[in-house]
Design a protein that fits this description.
With 242 residues, this protein is α+β, with helices and mostly antiparallel strands. Helices cover 44% and strands 12% of the residues. It has nine helices and seven strands.
């Protein structure tokens, strides 16, 4: 049997590699956290390591305050863990919290109307989407209650003028949600670049999309997609497992 802790490390390292593969990394300045099986500590990236370099063994284990509880020569991004600890603290379903500064995500976060229901892809995040206004670099613990209040029970969060965040019941779940949100942002920018009038999906269809997603993709399809993504990584470079 696979050790749950080791499997979590492998999955999170794979997630970082996939972020780099898709071009969503912002050098070393974004982050993904995962709750350890004991429920008390978390894994996050070694601050300063490029995402394509991250391995299962290099991930840093921290407590709820962001203090390292395992030996590591690498620090932890202080702004990163303010955001992640806030969500993990109040959302017990948040096994994984993923945050990006992708160009498309930041561009849509700066638009007054935010994400619009312009594509089928956009409907999945749109049905469970919240917004949080920009308050500067996330270093202040005072921001935590406002961020979590804005997130509520949603799975997708657009941080205004900042980027994107997803909450998942697993690393695979958080990654697939980010893929959908990121892709929806890219599609919106491409549609807007055409310069013509845009057609939004009617509200009755938007409201029913979650039930359709459950039928077509077995929820959001994380368990369906994740093994294939790991196989893809293994074919290219399986060093993330180390």
């Amino acid at each position: 049997m696979t050790d749950p802790t080791q499997q979590l490390r492998v999955d999170l390292a794979a997630c970082y590699r996939l972020i780099a593969l898709h071009g969503w990394d912002d050098l070393v300045f974004t982050h993904v956290s995962a709750r350890m099986p004991d429920g008390e500590t978390f894994l996050i990236n070694p601050y300063g390591m490029m995402f394509e370099e991250i391995t299962a063994g290099s991930l840093v284990e921290v407590d709820a305050a962001g203090a390292k509880v395992s030996d590591s020569l690498w620090p932890v991004n202080p702004a990163g863990f303010v955001i992640h600890s806030a969500v993990h603290e109040v959302r017990h379903d948040a096994a994984c919290v993923m945050h990006t500064h992708s160009k498309a995500g930041v561009a849509v976060s700066a638009q007054k109307d935010g994400l619009r229901p312009l594509s089928q892809t956009s409907l999945f995040p749109y049905s469970s989407l919240a917004y949080h206004d920009y308050e500067g670099v996330a270093l202040n613990d005072d921001e935590k209650p406002r961020l979590t209040a804005d997130l509520g029970d949603k799975s997708f969060l657009i941080l205004r003028n900042h980027g994107l965040l997803t909450v998942g019941t697993s690393v695979a779940d958080a990654f697939l949600k980010m893929y959908l949100l990121e892709t929806a942002c890219q599609i919106q920018l491409l549609a807007q670049s055409g310069g013509g009038p845009l057609i939004e999906v009617p509200p009755p269809i938007v409201s029913g999309i979650q039930a359709q997603a459950d039928q077509v993709t077995k929820g959001l399809g994380a368990d369906l997609v994740w093994p294939g993504l790991l196989r893809k990584l293994d074919r290219q470079d399986d060093s993330y497992r180390q």
